[in-house]
Amino acid sequence: MAQQKPFFSVVIPIYNKGPHIARSINSVLPHTFQDIELIIVNDASTDNSLEEVAKFSGPRISLYHREKPGPGDYAARNLGIEKAKAEWIAFLDADDEWMPRHLESYFEFIDTHADINMFGCGWLYEQKGIISTDRYYNAHKQKGNHVLNIVQYLKNFARPGYYFPHTSTACIRKHLLKEAGGFPEGIMQRGGDLDTWLRCALLARQVGWSSHIGGIYHKDSVNMVTQTATACPKIIKSRTEMILINVDSPAERNLLKQIHNGRIISCFKSQIMKNTKFPIHKFLFFESNPLRFVFWSAISLFPETLIIKLTRIRKAFRTLFC
After folding, report:
1. What angle do CA 92, 193, 173 make, to 5 degrees?
2. Is the overall model pTM greater than 0.90, yes or no?
């Protein structure tokens, strides 16, 4: 007798997350929605991650191994997608956790919106014991569950902190992920999640947002990509140009360029804080926002120490008033 397909396949990639993986698994298995399979992909961990995973067993859990770790867990996620039995795939990073009703909330939304292939929701940030809510949730929670067309989605994606889904709360149909090409394994070390969501959204043409808080993104975890990897502006530019080839709408092209410029500026700030910088004007699109192009091109000419001071002042100001 053929085994019935689960409604959700939950994919957790692991690379040296021994201190955190039990927390992630424990947030999935006793979940209020039980029609799931849990796919754990060991990305050639060298710490005690596998020992922690071995403490969990059951017919719903599958463990797969890769021989060589891939940057950003992208290859591990792609393997999880390949092995998934369910139509819907939900992602969770090994150092994050879900709220108890996360999948149940998605199931209820999916049940009434069969035409939607991609969903996001609200999430929490936790750092040094301080918890905050993502900006899109803060701005739109009163709307309840809602659907954005592609232009609405891209407009929000272009705003700092307004993008969704967050990787640990993303829920996407398997066929859409496959059609979009999956995660960019072997191409980039950082920024591949955003790259993937954009490609998926452009194919889906609409994105659902569930008004529940789905998970907690822990920013003080060990071995985080955001701490160990650096985004490459050249790769980001080439990926954006590749996406633009298949986009005919002037409005969508302009929004994608705005999103790209925001990513490049974020990359520039990050590298400045590490006492390196690059000629930012070579990687920005001028036509999407000429004033922003001129401003950041001029800023890049300042001494690094001055840029660092200005960046810290701006960050402190936003923390205080946002």
Report:
1. 65
2. yes
